[in-house]
Design a protein that fits this description.
The protein is mainly α. Helices cover about 65% and strands about 10% of the residues. It has three helices and two strands; from the N terminus they run E-E-H-H-H. The protein has a two-stranded antiparallel ribbon. Strand 1 and strand 2 form a beta hairpin. This is Transposase.
């Protein structure tokens, strides 16, 4: 069990990837990330800086822990980095 840890009596796979999540879990995490991103832009009217993005990802990670969804931080950050450009363009077109 080199890729597993026992936490709170449950076995967690430490090398889990985004593709290993169930579709409803992916949708939920994506919705939370997009909600955080939209909220930031609505509040400050600019793109978030790198440290601000990390705060957004941290708040989503806390929500994931509350729902017992476990995936490494790097996987969530990678997904967010790939999607934030698309979300920003979508917001720009909505605001015009």
């Amino acid at each position: 069990m080199k890729n597993h840890d026992i936490v709170n009596g449950q076995i967690l796979q430490t090398n889990k990837k985004w593709s290993h999540l169930k579709q409803n879990q992916k949708n939920l995490i994506a919705e939370w990330l997009q909600e955080e991103y939209r909220g930031f832009i609505a509040m400050y009217l600019r793109k978030p800086k790198r440290f601000e993005e990390e705060y957004m990802i941290d708040s989503v990670m806390e929500r994931m822990q509350a729902r017992d969804i476990w995936i490494p931080y790097v996987e969530v950050k990678t997904y967010f980095t790939r999607k934030k450009g698309k979300w920003y363009r979508k917001l720009e077109s909505e605001l015009e």
